[in-house]
Amino acid sequence: MGYQTIKNGIIGIMQGLGYQESNEAWNMQNASANEYGNTFILKALAGEINDTSEQLADRFYDNQTWELTVAFEQSSQNESINLDVAHTAKDAILTKLDDPNSWLSFVRMMKYKTWKMEETVAYFLLTVTISVTDVYTY
Fold first, then answer.
1. pTM score > 0.90 for this model?
2. Are 51 and 133 in contact (CB under 8 A)?
3. In angstroms, rounded to a whole number, what is the distance separating the alpha carbons of residues 134 and 47?
4. Fold of 3-51+60-137
């Protein structure tokens, strides 16, 4: 199906959860504080073809790695509350990304591979790595 189809599909999933795509293309370092908890960055990182034994005569499967990042507000007054909010949002995101009803219309398979929560000076950063199997036909 291709990059734009997958990107639009994941954007739709995130919009369904109340998030919008950030104006930042690669990281949240230059994002304004009003984007925290409201926006995400989505990147296609890599891909590789499936084993040739699984190929059919008119298609091939591309195993791709995508990365989704969301920054959440951090403040010293209520740091633990903000971290709880970030983890609760993470749970909702992972559940939606792993639900086949969310992605069957645009990819063959989609599963989250890893997630991590990092603390920066200004925000908590959730990073989710997503495994996508796309089908290319010719």
1. no
2. no
3. 10
4. STM4215-like (3.30.2000)
Q: Residue 50 — φ and ψ, nearest 5°? A: -65, 165
Distances (CA, A) of 7 to 60, 86, 97, 118: 19, 23, 13, 24
Tokens of 71: 């920054």
Q: What is the pLDDT of residues 55-87, one digit of tens each?
A: 556 677 889 999 999 999 887 667 677 889 999
92: helix, strand or coil: helix
According to DSSP, the β-strands at 20-21 and 39-49 are parallel
What dihedral do alpha carbons 128, 64, 45, 115 form, nearest 10°?
A: 10
Domain ranges of the chain: 3-51+60-137
What percentage of the chain's residues is helix, strand, coil (to nearest 5)? 30, 40, 30
CB atoms within 10 A of CB 100: 11
Rounded to whole angstroms, the Cα distance separating 110 from 113 reads 9
